[in-house]
Amino acid sequence: MKTARAITRLLIFVWIISLRLFLALFITHIYPRKREAVLRQMRKWAAHTLYFMGIEVELRGKLPEAPALILPNHRSYIDIIFFPNMVKDACFVAKAEVEWWPLVGAGARVVGTLFVNRKDKDSRRQTREGIKKRLEEGYSVIVFPEGTTYKMPELGKFSPGMFFAAAEGRIPVIPVAIEYEDPNDAWVGDDTFIPHFIRTFGKKQSKVIITFGEVMYGTDGEVLLNEVRSWVETQLSQIQKEYAAAK
């Protein structure tokens, strides 16, 4: 039963992303206000995926009202699905290899994702410049400062570059804590997509709590990094205690 459910959902997932990607690509060629239209397709993709995948989201905190640098912790590829309907006019920063993933890469490109090779100094610099430009254009930019995924209860080391850029440019920063009820929903290490998808979405439902923090500003990148990380760490610890108490 679980395997059949997961395979059905996988086919639905592929269908949804293929349909929305086709529509987004079509729109970019014919629609004069293509930005709004493409983002609308992205929001529909996210909403339909959450529904059909059986993902229950409990949202806490105040959603952003103005463009900001959004900094969540990172558990899984699932994380990106949450933001299109929570953050108006959002785009992502993703690791360079995502650009060439089947379907996902094409979808990421069409919605204006910034791709960064974290091992390349020039790529990191171009990404920081790209973030500033996106913010000036009215986008919020979502960056996972850990750079990769970690399983509950771990919180990875935050890359400092975005924090120093935010402090230097007086860019508003909003921390976000993401925690799944089932630690195995995390996609980490050498785990491959299909086995993880079947294991995760073979369940009837997956639950996640997402907490948005208040807007933060800083003039010192290191101080800002520590403040954001401390806030996320505190929120994750609280959510983990809630999950444990509910068992």
Structure write-up:
The mean pLDDT is 88. With 247 residues, the chain is of the alpha/beta class. Helix 1 (2-30) packs antiparallel against helix 2 (34-53) and helix 1 runs parallel beside helix 3. It contains 7 helices and 7 strands. Strands 1-7-6-2-5-3-4 form a 7-stranded mixed beta sheet, with helices on both faces.
Would you summarize the structure shown here?
This protein is an alpha/beta fold and 247 residues long. The protein has helices at residues 2-30, 34-53, 104-110, 121-136, 161-169, 193-201, 221-246, and strands at residues 55-60, 69-72, 90-95, 114-116, 140-142, 173-180, 206-212.
Break the fold down into its secondary structure elements and pairings.
Blueprint lengths: L1 H29 L3 H20 L1 E6 L8 E4 L17 E6 L8 H7 L3 E3 L4 H16 L3 E3 L18 H9 L3 E8 L12 H9 L4 E7 L8 H26 L1
Parallel strand pairs: 1-7, 2-5, 2-6, 3-4, 3-5
Antiparallel strand pairs: 6-7
Helix pairs in contact: 1-2, 1-3, 1-6, 5-7
Instruction: State the shape.
Output: globular
Q: Estimate the strand proportion.
A: 5-15%
Overall number of strands: 7
User: How do the helices and strands follow one another from N- to C-terminus?
Assistant: HHEEEHEHEHEHEH
Radius of gyration: 18 Å
Detail the poorly predicted runs: none
| Mean of all residue-level pLDDT scores | 88
Count helical runs: 7
What about the largest sheet?
A: 7 strands, mixed
Structural class given helices, strands, pairing? alpha/beta
> How far from one another are the termini?
24 Å
Helix content: 40-55%
The spatial strand order of the largest sheet comes to: 1-7-6-2-5-3-4
